[in-house]
Design a protein that fits this description.
The chain is α+β, with helices and mostly antiparallel strands. It has helices spanning 21-28, 134-143, 149-163, 169-183, 192-204, 208-221, 226-242, 246-263, 268-274, 284-298, 303-315, 319-335, 337-341, 355-372, 376-391, 400-416, 420-434, 437-449, 456-470, 511-526, 542-550, 565-570, 600-610, and strands at residues 8-13, 40-47, 60-68, 73-79, 84-89, 93-102, 109-116, 123-124, 476-477, 482-484, 490-492, 500-506, 532-538, 559-561, 578-582, 587-593.
Length: 612
């Protein structure tokens, strides 16, 4: 049974610059303080509680998230010495949340606190909390009447409720229009927070041409403001989803992203875009600079950015810098520092990357460094170490991707140094791991390069047979279930023996799930006359499903099973979309997660099972 640590802790103001009675009360009361002020240093204490937790252990950390009044964020962690650690609250802080955890078995105890303005002792709520309801908005306007940004945060909260099916989309549009009328004459274009509020409200009022003009104005007047970044993100996300002609948004985003990359590459938007799909517009040097800034100033705990940073330095020919980072990542992975920097509770770690994956990826980075220096022998050794490490982490549901990367890189190096027989063996290993026919395409190229193309077909047939025989495993019977669809009709798996069953697990927040719908509908139409049933399974409620359907251009053409959390648990589905195929005997014959732009493999298995 998992041992759960509950931490009793206090946060004490160690700097008493404010001589008011509230501060004195906090200092005399060993509970969570009611007041935390900006520009103050606090002491974080973890005290022994009834579980016998020992605060003197050196494996206790405190992860902190601070939301700033300018919409920026600060994230990091501190190590507690004898159960204590110091934390400085920067000027302009608005909201503090944090959690205690250990590096061994990460279980957290969370808390959150709003920050008080040290000059007037008023609570700073403004537009920077995770959630802002009507009561909070009114309280903030009472404390800070000129903070128009609170309207934007409140309307964003309404939009989130609509997105998850709790409100109708039209309610958000009406409310946005109402608040626009209230603030339009108060907005100062010289004030970034005002312009931000104006953009957000116009965005949710679906006045997209107006938003685009205001975004350009924001970039001209406030290019380095985080308000610019958040305005841009809001437009990008919601106009693409709700605009009648989303291609218009795509054209504008492409144009404005080029402008950002060319003129303000190191602005908050520039940092975000250079680490996303828009990185194609940035120089290698700008990408490396932005990645370094992200690690140093935004989130030192985000290990994926640290890994990317190594690659960016490599691409920019900063070989020694790349080597330094990759060696550091390997040390962090071996020592368990990856858990400290990116803590995930044990209960949520199932199916995710663990020690083997982190070590493997670090070896892979080192291999790329050595490849760039043409030290191919050492690069291959590191790739072998990476592959061995990945093998120890097969519970990671995503491990096939780095394995594919590592083995492909190894084969490419072997071809480059004309070790073609070794490259062929590497491709064979890769095919055994993935059973992906694209590996056969690479092998065919290798046969062509060595002028042996005529022997490829027999070789490929033999390889397929060997892999199929080697990986032959007893099929697992699908767990029976009984669950009602959207119309209340009860679906029982036991009644569908003799037919192929396709279970598609999805969720209303999952964009790939939505993109996959037309492909699944097409396969459903093609096989309607066959012995097959398609079921769209979701944990969402019927109301949430209905709201989701209202904003989709195309919804599932087959039965939807809502409220299916227990069914997802029975089939061990933690990632959406996930497809499971059950054959006519009631055996699970195929399972895949994610959507890569087509469902070719799913279709192939369905047709094969129908023809049996």
């Amino acid at each position: 049974m998992r041992k759960i640590f509950y931490f009793i802790f206090v946060v004490i103001l160690s700097s008493c610059k404010n001589n008011n009675s509230d501060t004195k009360t906090v200092l005399s009361n060993l509970v969570l303080p009611s007041f935390i002020y900006e520009e103050e240093e606090i002491i974080v204490n973890a005290l022994r509680d009834s579980t016998g937790f020992d605060p003197s252990l050196d494996t206790i950390y405190f992860r902190v998230f601070i939301a700033m009044q300018d919409l920026s964020q600060r994230q990091g962690y501190i190590k507690l010495e004898e159960g204590k650690g110091k934390l400085f609250i920067p000027k302009g802080a608005a909201f503090l949340s944090g959690s205690f955890y250990t590096s061994e078995d990460i279980e957290v105890k969370n808390f959150e606190r709003r920050i008080y303005d040290r000059h007037n002792n008023k609570e700073v709520i403004n537009a920077y909390q995770v959630h802002t309801n009507l009561e909070m908005m009114e309280k903030e306007l009472s404390n800070h009447p000129n903070n128009l940004a609170i309207y934007a945060k409140y309307i964003q909260e309404l939009q989130e409720e609509a997105y998850f099916g709790k409100l109708d989309d039209s309610v958000v549009q009406v409310e946005a229009q109402k608040y626009l009328g209230m603030i339009e004459n108060k907005v100062s274009l010289e004030k970034a927070s005002d312009l931000y509020a104006f953009i957000i409200l116009n965005n949710y009022a679906k006045r997209y041409d107006k938003v685009e003009a205001l975004l350009l104005e924001m970039l001209r007047k406030h290019p380095y403001s985080y308000f610019s970044k958040e305005s841009y993100i809001s437009y990008k996300v919601w106009s693409k989803r709700y605009r009648e002609y989303p291609n218009e948004t795509k054209i504008f985003l492409d144009s404005i992203s080029r402008y950002i990359a060319n003129n303000i590459p190191h602005s908050p938007i520039g940092v975000a875009n250079s680490l996303s799909s828009y990185r194609k517009y940035y120089s290698k040097e700008d990408i490396a600079t932005n990645a370094q800034y992200y690690v140093d100033n935004i989130d030192s705990t985000f290990i994926l950015i640290r890994d990317r940073l190594t690659k960016y330095h490599l691409n920019a020919k900063n070989i020694e810098k790349a080597r330094e980072f990759s060696i550091k990542e390997l040390q962090n992975a071996k020592s368990g520092q990856w858990k400290v920097m990116n803590p995930v509770p044990a209960r949520d770690r199932r199916g995710g990357a663990n020690r083997g994956s982190y070590i493997g990826f670090s070896y892979q980075l080192l291999a790329e460094v050595n490849e760039s220096e043409k030290d191919y022998k050492q690069a291959i050794k590191y790739l072998d170490s990476a592959y061995i490490s990945y093998q120890t982490d097969k519970q990671n549901r995503f491990v096939s991707y780095p394995i594919t990367q590592a083995l492909n890189l190894k084969a490419n190096i072997q071809r480059r140094i004309e070790k073609n027989d070794q490259a062929l063996q590497t491709y064979e290993t890769l095919y055994q791991e993935t059973k992906d026919d694209r590996v056969l395409d690479s092998i065919q190229v290798l046969f062509k390069e060595t002028q042996q193309e005529q022997g490829f077909e027999n070789y490929a047939k033999n390889l397929k047979e060997r892999v199929e025989n080697k990986n032959q495993e007893p099929k697992k019977l699908a767990a029976n279930f009984s669950i009602k669809d959207m119309s209340g009709y009860e679906i029982k798996l036991s009644e569908w023996k003799g037919r192929v069953v396709v279970l598609n697990f999805w969720a209303n927040y999952c964009l790939p799930c939505a993109k996959e719908i037309p492909y699944l509908n097409e396969l459903w139409r093609e096989t309607q006359t066959k012995d097959i049933i398609f079921l769209a399974v979701t944990k969402n409620t019927p109301l949430e499903v209905t709201r989701f359907a209202q904003r989709q251009k195309e919804m599932f053409s087959f039965s939807i099973l809502p409220n299916a959390k227990e069914l997802a648990d029975v089939y061990d589905v933690n990632l959406v979309p996930t497809q499971i195929i059950i054959n006519k005997k009631g055996e699970i014959v195929h399972r895949e997660s994610g959507f890569g732009g087509n469902i070719d493999k799913l279709k192939q298995v369905v047709l094969e099972e129908l023809n049996k």
